[in-house]
Amino acid sequence: MKTLKLYNTETKRKAEFVPMNPDNVTMYVCGPTVWNHAHIGNYRPPVVFDVLARVLRSQFPKVTYARNITDIDDKINLAAEKEGVDISVISERFTKAYHDGLDALGVLPPDIEPKVTEHVAEIHQKIDALIERGHAYEAEGHVLFDVPSYQGYGELSKRDPEELLAGARIDIASYKKSDGDFVLWKPSSDDQPGWDSPWGRGRPGWHIECTAMAAAHLGETIDIHGGGHDLVFPHHENERAQSTCAHGTKFVNYWLHNGFVNVNKEKMSKSIGNVLLVRDLLNDAPGEAIRYVLLSAHYRAPLDWSDDVLLQANSSLDRLYGALRKMQNVVVPNDIGNQIPSGFAEAMFDDLNTPKALAELFSLSKQANTSVSKDEQVKLKAALIQSGEWLGLLQQDPETWFSGDGDTDEAAEIEQLIVERARAKVDKNWVRADEIRAILADKRVVLEDGADGTTWRIER
Ligand SMILES: [Zn+2]
Fold this sequence. Notes:
By secondary structure, the protein is α/β, with parallel strands linked by helices. It has three domains: 5-258, HUPs (Rossmann fold), CATH 3.40.50.620; 263-402, Orthogonal Bundle (Isoleucyl-tRNA Synthetase, Domain 1), CATH 1.10.730; 408-458, no CATH class. It contains 16 helices and 15 strands. It has helices at residues 40-59, 74-83, 87-104, 120-132, 161-167, 206-218, 232-247, 278-284, 287-295, 309-326, 342-349, 354-370, 374-391, 398-402, 408-426, 430-442; strands at 5-8, 13-16, 25-29, 63-67, 136-139, 142-145, 182-187, 202-204, 222-228, 252-258, 261-263, 266-267, 303-305, 445-450, 453-458. The strands form five sheets. It has a four-stranded parallel beta sheet. It is globular and about 80 Å long.
């Protein structure tokens, strides 16, 4: 077997992945701030790192994967204030919505999903250690990280500290010693959510949360730290500075970052009105098709979402599931062993080259469509399912895939419309009957009127 190579943002190179302890690989990925519904760009990291976790689990006996929930944040405070509810009402609501989206996209749960509200004591300990080691200071109820005290600052994002300071010179808070110093703890007013601390009642800054949670669950040095590319600076640069200075050890061996999702070649933004929420996309397409689109580009490259990507993903999955449906009666024995083709494994081991891996799946399905020998079919079916498992694709029954997206609400609605249309025809209400046919056509439902009544299917 070839070895897994990963691109490390810190060294700017692809290198062989060698875990500190092959019996327990550790990975931390920054999760969402749960203040509203997540858009498609927010779902790219959990899908990408779910694939990495699957690949790692296939190679190492144990992987400990932590992906946090940020449930202390000023945006949550604001949303709670607007509704006049406790912050937990907001964060629980949007954690559930996030989990629903992840389930639909076939993302397996991480081993640990730490919440900031459950780690305030650990955050205090990290801040204490930083003050003690001369890397943080208290000022006007705040605790700040002293950026000039750490020589390695800027090494991850490749930014010149001088430049960083110059860039931060707008609106400098009076309590900062240096312009680039960032908040570890900030005071809360009486009407703001807050926690008691040695520095007064307040709340943690965003960056220290991840430092405390990663150390609490994975140790002071971890193998892999992942997240979206937008987190390199300042979030990960600051996490790296805090962890290195609090522990006196290297924080992360492999830093991995995924690219943005753009919509029609533009950055998603509220002002353009092109923000795509996954819960809306799920009305139009099965989660597996959304996942397919997210894996259709290399994870480090930007992904361009356009109007036709979901249709294309649907038809690609139709081809792959079509090959599996043809082999519906082929039985794969449980003890068949690893049938993952070397071309597929090589693509995945080359810094998760999912576009190339998907191309390998198509070549398998092509072979399956021409192959005649039963033995070959058994191997091809196993190869498709086992390779699909690494990507989190092709794991459902082909019939389930072809019968639609498994959305029973929608199926019930369609059945009801069909019944109503039949009644309209009996009543000779042709206008209504045509209207219903048009509604169904919009849903891409194809009706076939036969002697035994009307059957339907969803055309992709
Ligand atoms: Zn983080």
